[in-house]
Specification:
The chain is built from five helices and 14 strands. It has 258 residues and is α/β, with parallel strands linked by helices. It folds into two domains: 117 residues, Translation factors (Elongation Factor Tu (Ef-tu), domain 3, Beta Barrel); 112 residues, Rossmann fold, CATH 3.40.50.80.
Length: 258
Amino acid sequence: MHERKNIINALLTVIKIERPSESYWRLHFSCDKPLVVNPRWICPHLKLLFADPLTGEIAFPILDENNKISVSDRVRQFARSYSIRDYDERNNHIVIDFSIHASGLATVWSQQAKVGDQVGFVGPAGKLEFANQYLILMGDVSALPAICYTLGHLPADHQAIAFIEVNHKTDIVDLPKHLSVKWMIKDANYPNQLVDALMNWDFSQHDNLLFWGGLEGSLAQQLRHALKDKYVNLAPNAIQITSYWREGLAEGEFKHRD
């Protein structure tokens, strides 16, 4: 007999709202169900489920008769993936940063959110766990929450480096001092700044490399291919580059690709 899957459908309630920088809102949530967030996950995420603007109802996925997760078009229409910025296990509180865009379901919701507002979610989940790898994280401001969570949970003796491109100086945050972090300010005349910085870095003194990145779709694809061409002896799962957004498309209009 197959073990029955357990999917956590839950509600998050806004308990605090902050604006740490020009680029994003930070929302603190309480959760109505106990969660399991593995501190060894690299860049854990969850799927937020927003209410239908017409009905105000939140739709959740279900398990079908074959024990498979069934996601209806209605659920998919109002679902968005977000990284966990922080998790307080004792109080079961989650922190999520919402990048500010000109439009989009999640952007509008986060900017209008008030204490007491609710959003559904499925998860959390993490595709990777760190072990003894030399961890190389890279991303633009959209991946900053994921990178900060991961660096903040690494053991003090774990080696890692991060390459982060942000929109403004106010986006730069304090991270553990023993870690190497290369900050860059976005330059419209140099869109490949982040990719070039990473590809020109010398990692020859390190073994067992693990790359993780989150950035704009076309740059993610370019970086993914460049890393695979340069580090031909790495296992396929040692290069994890995700398209966090795509130039010219609103959130929900493209598919993330790992």
